[in-house]
Write a structure and sequence with these properties.
The complex is a heterodimer of chains A (74) and B (268). Chain A is of the alpha+beta class and 74 residues long. Chain A has one domain: Translation Initiation Factor IF3 (2-Layer Sandwich). Chain A has two helices and four strands. In chain A, helix 1 packs across helix 2. By secondary structure, chain B is of the alpha/beta class. Chain B has a single domain, classed as NAD(P)-binding Rossmann-like Domain (Rossmann fold), CATH 3.40.50. Chain B contains ten helices and eight strands. In chain B, strands 3-2-1-4-5-6-7-8 form an eight-stranded mixed β-sheet, sandwiched between helices. In chain B, a hairpin with a 2-residue loop joins strand 5 and strand 6. The longest helix of chain B has 18 residues. Classes of the chains: A alpha+beta (74), B alpha/beta (268). Chains A and B meet through helix 1 of A and helix 2 and helix 3 of B.
Chain lengths: 74, 268
């Protein structure tokens, strides 16, 4: 399954908190696409996700100050 | 709304949700939990405060006493409520702190007549009492109803904490079979109490309760933690289930009989 989570407008630590909560509703192996526009979150969220054992698949800039983060649930 | 949490809840509980040991799943467990706090005094203040802050969904608070000026040296949740019933005053505090928590107040005394019915509806009990009869009443009723409870007590500069999980670990009577003879131990009123001490002991009790509800870490099951704040010494005594314990060992008692909760709390 593939899910999307739009966190544009959200700041840390709530970017990770919301990503974590969303992942809790998914099954192991599911992929979550997270949209971010808070630059520090592009470093904080992947680091926290890895610490919880999830696999960060991709982080790419998709526009001016906007990023897409793909993560696979552990 | 994500995973059943409102925007406000996500912000309120963010620091919990971030913890790998808690997460959204753990926070949901807390929101569904029910804890009965016996006493809203020195120990009850931090217990109620931190359980409410943590989002324990239902808090029962039983206390028949009223707030007195001499309480405010340590009972921090009752500011501005002199003369009010402590359970009602505590409810006001909780409502200001966290509207997620439903508070049920009982303005009567915990007694042999009401204890079993009262605790039945809760997942865990917090003992914040200041006297032996009520302490033994809580222990015995919790063993009979198979309810875990957190024991805490204070004296001058010293405190003790233990978490009792009936059937799994020792109960309070395994450690202290009955109360000391009347007059041997002065009450807090006579002996005095270091104001910050109940804050410390009650906070440890709240810690234990939250951990038990979450099912994380090691709790003080079979371990009595002693605190001496004057010398700042913490130590623990390992305690075992006593096979001769009149409550949880031999099971000589099958119900709460009022005559057992007089001064000595002996069961025969």
């Amino acid at each position: 399954m593939r899910e999307k989570l739009d966190l544009r407008g959200e700041v840390c630590p709530f970017t990770f908190v919301k990503t974590k909560l969303k992942l809790e509703t998914l099954n192991s192996g599911d992929i979550l696409e997270v949209y971010l526009d808070y630059e520090p979150a592009t470093r904080n969220v992947p680091r926290s996700l890895k610490a919880e054992g999830h696999e960060v698949l991709e982080l790419k800039q998709i526009g001016d100050g906007e990023w897409l983060l793909k993560v696979r649930k552990a | 709304m994500i995973a059943g949490f409102t925007e406000e809840q996500i912000r309120r509980y963010a620091r919990h949700i971030i913890l790998p040991e808690v997460g959204g799943e753990g926070q949901k467990k807390l929101l569904k939990s029910k804890v009965l706090c016996v006493g809203a005094g020195g120990l009850g203040s931090p217990i109620i405060q931190y359980l409410a802050a943590a989002g324990v969904g239902t808090l029962g608070i039983i206390d028949d006493d009223v707030v007195d000026l001499s309480n405010l040296q340590r009972q921090t949740i009752h500011a501005g409520n002199l003369g009010r019933n402590k359970a009602v005053s505590a409810k006001e505090f909780v409502e200001r702190l966290n509207p997620d928590v439903e508070v049920i107040t009982y303005t009567e005394k915990l007694s042999p007549d009401n204890v079993r019915d009262l605790i039945k509806g809760y997942d865990m009990i917090a003992d914040g009492t200041d006297n032996f009869p009520t302490r033994y009443l809580i222990n015995d009723a919790c063993v009979l109803e198979n309810k875990p409870f957190s024991h805490g007590s204070i004296f001058r500069f010293e405190g003790q904490i233990m978490t009792i999980v009936p059937n799994e670990g020792p109960c309070y009577r395994c450690v202290f079979e009955h109360a000391p003879p009347e007059g041997m131990v002065p009450s807090c009123q006579e002996a005095g109490v270091f104001g910050v001490l109940p804050g410390l002991v009650g906070s440890i009790q709240a810690t234990e309760i939250i951990k038990y509800l979450l099912g994380i870490g090691d709790i003080l099951k079979g371990r009595m933690l002693y605190i001496d704040t004057l010398n700042m010494d913490f130590f623990e005594i390992k305690v075992k289930k006593n096979p001769d314990c009149p409550m949880c060992g031999k099971r000589v008692i099958d119900d709460i009989h009022p005559e057992n909760y007089q001064e000595s709390c002996r069961l025969w």
